[in-house]
Design goal:
Length: 360
């Protein structure tokens, strides 16, 4: 049985994407170990069909965290027996590169996004320069890799000549749809570039509650925007929510929200986990009209698309969907049909085939 280590910077209790990936690979016969970080707020780990390891760091954010965590990862991996190693995004790639060379084992890059093209990086020249150096220093040596859509794979091929496969981050099939409640849902990272600067002001003009499930580097500013625009009675921050509880919120929500600023190719070419989570929840969504989302929506008609992220435009689209019951029903029914196709049970077959091709 091939033993593969996966490295993330996330809290393992909340990382639904890695829970799906590791569970599927363990089911496919691999010995999987997922390594992440331990925060002061971390919940106890649930028992799963793969092993989990948390690494404690003195620093929890910023450049000191990344430096400390990468060093700790390297020395943790150094004394472990393994047949392969996988870096999840750029922030764990260096220790995976060096360990794979020392141990002469296959290395895999799981690129969920164009890391250097995220707004919080591409808009900060010094930080961008550092991460771009890491990318140039490492990605060309990861000839085995996969990402979430073809435009991102094309960018990696253009920049570094690597041919990456496509494994989308899609939720498992649900098929159970509880009664809906009239609230809006944003689930995911509360980070820069996620349009909270316009979404929160838009709530002034929407007669509905917005529930935000997640945390991130923009949380302080998001809460200040709520105070500034006096929408504290409409915007509820739930923080990090365990996967099973989050699934319930998604299934009960009336409208989901998938919007990003068009700043950096990472947002423009994104394919967010929540996009598929809403589909599996039978939840119509307001979604940015960027290429990958548009292609899927053109086929399945599961979302109301928008090109304009100004507050009044967002409010107008949300009110349109809140008031037009027939339009909402049509999207809701389309979500339930699309869920039968766009599900992890279909996507995990590609994942298993990818790893079996490397390890046999």
């Amino acid at each position: 049985m091939n033993k593969i280590f996966f490295a993330v910077t996330t809290d393992l209790s909340y990382d639904q994407r890695m829970i799906r990936i590791c569970t599927s690979l363990a089911d496919a016969g691999f010995d999987v170990v997922l390594v992440g970080r331990r925060l002061s707020s971390s919940l106890p780990l649930q028992e799963r069909n793969y092993r989990q390891k948390r690494i404690y760091c003195l620093f929890e954010k910023g450049k000191l965290f990344y430096a400390e965590y990468n060093v700790r990862l390297f020395f943790y991996f150094l004394f472990k027996k393994m047949d392969g190693i996988c870096a999840i995004d750029l922030d764990t790639i260096l220790p995976c590169l060096y360990i794979s060379r020392l141990k002469n084992i296959p290395r895999i890059y799981d690129a969920h996004e164009l890391f250097c093209e995220m707004k919080e990086i591409v808009t900060r020249p010094k930080i961008y320069k550092t991460w771009k150096w890491i990318e140039r220093h490492s990605v060309p040596y990861f000839t085995n890799g996969y990402t979430v859509n073809q435009p991102i794979a094309d960018e990696f091929r253009r920049m570094y000549g690597v041919q990456y496969g496509i494994v989308r981050s899609i939720a498992k099939y649900n098929g159970s749809y509880p009664p809906k409640e009239k609230f809006l849902l944003y689930q995911g990272a509360v980070n820069e570039g996620r349009s909270f600067e316009t979404l929160i002001p838009a709530m002034q003009f929407v007669d509905c509650t917005l529930i935000v499930c997640g945390n991130g580097n923009f949380m302080t500013q998001a809460k200040e925007l709520v105070r500034t625009h006096d929408v504290g009675d409409k915007v509820i921050f739930k923080g990090m929510v365990p996967p099973e509880e989050l699934k319930e919120y998604t299934a009960r929500a009336y409208i989901g929200i998938t919007i990003f600023e068009n700043k950096g190719l990472s947002n423009y070419f994104s394919l967010a986990n929540r996009f598929f989570d809403y589909i599996q929840g039978g939840t119509p969504q307001l979604c940015v009209n960027y290429p990958v989302y548009k292609t899927i929506n053109d086929e399945y008609q599961i979302a109301l698309m928008t090109d304009d992220l100004a507050p009044k435009s967002i409010a107008g689209k949300l009110n349109e969907l809140l008031k037009d019951e027939q339009a909402w029903i049509r999207l809701h029914q389309n979500c339930m049909e699309a869920a039968k196709v766009l599900n992890w049970e279909n996507e995990e077959k590609k994942l298993a085939a990818f790893y079996k091709n490397i390890f046999g």
